[in-house]
């Protein structure tokens, strides 16, 4: 299938993919070039969580998650969990959907610390959540307003 055929077949998916490309690129640039204390303020309220009963369209969350995962595969750089979580959080914020960014740590078999980031909106995990892996949550950022 050519790119033109794919675009024609997935026309509705193109706009979220372009938005995901922009957000993943921006997130990577922010992470690489700016110290954490500059960009953490844009993530929301520290050590807070949003309500799990927040009404949200499951299809909207699926589109965001799907577009980020799809675009991340084709980027010329490695898009890690923090890039994807920040992109998801900003895409949700653009739609005025309250969300929570989780930052967690776990020790692997070699006793090395591993970090991970994931995002929840309402009662649904948008990106990065790994069922069965017990990360110790070291920080949460709740986005509930218009500061992003």
Which characteristics define this entry?
single chain; 148 residues; 5-stranded antiparallel β-sheet
Kindly describe this structure.
The protein has 148 residues and is α+β, with helices and mostly antiparallel strands. The protein has one domain. It has five helices and five strands, in the order αααβααββββ. The protein has helices at residues 3-9, 11-33, 36-39, 58-74, 81-94; strands at residues 45-46, 99-107, 113-121, 124-127, 136-143. Strands 1-5-2-3-4 form a five-stranded antiparallel beta sheet. The longest helix has 23 residues, at 11-33. The radius of gyration is 16 Å and the shape is globular. The mean pLDDT is 89.
Describe the structure concisely:
With 148 residues, the protein is an alpha+beta fold. It has helices at 3-9, 11-33, 36-39, 58-74, 81-94; strands at residues 45-46, 99-107, 113-121, 124-127, 136-143.
Which range best describes the helical content: under 10%, 10-25%, 25-40%, 40-55%, 55-70% or over 70%? 40-55%
Low-confidence stretches: none
Distance between the first and last residues' Cα: 38 Å
Give, in spatial order, the strands making up the sheet with the most strands: 1-5-2-3-4
Largest sheet: 5 strands, antiparallel
Could you tell me the strand content as a percent range? 15-25%
Give the number of helices.
5
Structural shape = globular
Return the string of H and E elements.
HHHEHHEEEE
Number of domains: 1
Radius of gyration: 16 Å
Oligomer: single chain
Q: Structural class of the helix and strand makeup?
A: alpha+beta
Number of E strands: 5
Mean pLDDT: 89
């Amino acid at each position: 299938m050519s790119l033109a055929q794919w675009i024609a077949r997935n026309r509705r998916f193109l706009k979220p993919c372009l938005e995901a490309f922009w957000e993943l690129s921006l997130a990577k640039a922010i992470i690489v070039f700016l110290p954490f204390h500059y960009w953490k303020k844009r993530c929301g309220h520290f050590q807070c969580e949003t309500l799990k009963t927040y009404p949200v369209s499951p299809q909207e969350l699926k589109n965001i998650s799907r577009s980020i995962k799809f675009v991340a595969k084709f980027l010329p750089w490695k898009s890690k969990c923090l890039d994807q979580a920040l992109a998801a959080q900003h895409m949700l914020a653009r739609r005025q959907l309250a969300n929570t960014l989780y930052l967690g740590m776990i020790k692997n078999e070699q006793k090395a610390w591993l970090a991970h980031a994931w995002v929840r909106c309402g009662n649904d995990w948008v990106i990065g959540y790994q069922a069965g892996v017990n990360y110790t949550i070291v920080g949460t950022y709740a986005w509930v307003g218009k500061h992003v």
